[in-house]
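Pasting as-is:
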Amino acid sequence: RYGTDPAHAMALGAMEDAFEPVLPQRIESTRPAGGKKVEFLLLGWCFTQSVRPLLQQEAAAAGLDAVVNVGFHDDLGLVAQFKPDVTVLQLSHRMVLAPLLDHLAATTAQQRLERLALAVATVERSIQAARDAVDGKLLLVQGIAVPQASPLGLLEYRDAPGMAAMIQAVNAAAAAACAAAPNLLFVDEDAL
C-alpha cells in the first residue's frame, strides 16, 4: 500500500536494487585543465542522480570543471556542506506522487481534491525550505511530467480532477513558488 504505509513501500531500497545501475565512468581525464569550477548539488531520486556523469561530461565540453554531488530531496543540509553554485531539486515521487496517486482509481473526486491540497502544500514547503537553504544561489526545481495513461480511465475527464489535472496543478504551484524569487527557476518537464 505504497503511500499509505511507508513500511511496505518498495522504494525503501528494493526499488533501487531492482534496476541495473549505470556503470561508473572515469571522467577526470576529460576535465579541462584550468577550466572554471562550477559546483552542482542534485537533490532527488534515481533520475536526477543518474544525470551526474552526463552533466560532468557536458560541462567539460564547455570548458568547465564541474563538481557534482547528489543527495535525496530532503538532504538540504548538503547545501551548507557543499556550498554549490547550482542546486537542483527534483519534486520527489515518494514525497509528492505516491501520496497523490496511491489507489487513485478507488478515490472520489473529493478525496482527490484533498490529496491535491496536501501535495501542493508539500511542494510549496519543500521549495521554501530549499530556497532558504541556497541563500540566494541558483535553485532549479524540476517539475513532474504528466503520465500518458491514467488509472482513472474514462473518469479522467468525467470526474474531475483527473490525474493529469492534479499533476498540472502541482506543477503550477511549484512554478508559482519559483516565480517568487529571482534565483529560482522551474524546469517544466512537460515542455521538455
